[in-house]
From TrEMBL:
It comes from Miscanthus lutarioriparius. Residues 19-34, 48-72 have a biased composition (Low complexity). InterPro entries: aa-tRNA-synth_II/BPL/LPL (IPR045864), Gly-tRNA-synth_heterodimer (IPR006194), Gly-tRNA_ligase_asu (IPR002310). Residues 38-47 have a biased composition (Basic residues). This is glycine--tRNA ligase. It is an enzyme of class 6 (ligase). Pfam families: tRNA-synt_2e (PF02091). It catalyses: tRNA(Gly) + glycine + ATP = glycyl-tRNA(Gly) + AMP + diphosphate. Keywords: Aminoacyl-tRNA synthetase, ATP-binding, Ligase, Nucleotide-binding, Protein biosynthesis. Belongs to the class-II aminoacyl-tRNA synthetase family. GO terms for biological process: glycyl-tRNA aminoacylation.
Amino acid sequence: MMAPPPPLLSPTAARRHTPLLTAPSALHPPSSASFCPPRHRPRRRPRLPLSSSAPAAADGDASTSSSAVSAANQRGSPASSVLTFQQAIQRLQEYWASVGCAVMQCSNTEVGAGTMNPLTFLRVLGPEPWNVAYVEPSIRPDDSRYGDNPNRLQRHTQFQVILKPDPGNSQDLFLHSLSAIGINIREHDIRFVEDNWESPVLGAWGLGWEVWMDGMEITQFTYFQQSGSLPLQPVSVEITYGLERILMSLQGVDHFKNILYTEGITYGELFLENEKEMSAYYLEHADVSHIQKHFDNFEEEARSLLSLGLPIPAYA
């Protein structure tokens, strides 16, 4: 049976905590002493090749034999014994709840990333402690590919975690979360690759890494320094999992449409038509001038609400 995850620790207690992996220097928070806020550059998002083999799972029903994966690949769909998309979400929710996070729901409006949910953007402001985890469907029209690209979607699924303040063992908590979804971190090449993040539209930036597994980016790990153009005290830790990429690797499939979402239902059956039609809208039929008018109206409304001291409806 997998050992229970470590609890959220205070910075003082964390200094006495033995980390799960002690060798990589990347497991220590980056220093901001010599770092200046980035100059509104687009965040580098390398399109890395997918691993050709499925990672071995750690234990329990998440494990799968190489013969099962091979047979599934021959059929073009994942083996029924592997962890499903739905089960992965459930395990992450259970894991982060077990270490002290509130499990919340996604935003009720369209967002481009889990960071834009008020549960992150507004809650990282101010001194109050805040530990939360939630699933966030994220819409990015620039990634529209009609469902043809195996790992690039206009609508993808993030699992978002915020730890405020930094408990001091956040990397260790993250590595344990990978074990919770059947990833044996000692059998896979897990790397923290420096990638200091920013979002000009949110007035936000932070220090951190992309997390790669076997050469593929699966998570963004960020120590928030600023949000809404305001310095953050205390600093919050944001962990953002890319669920489609993780599940493609776990299930040993080479296209998002072949991910087993739940028993008997594939990701493609649920979302492929959505990818095709929304890509056609974004790339061919959207009336940009009409949308710009909506944007201008919403901006005016937001400024009016802010002048009334109503930041929550202004942000919504």
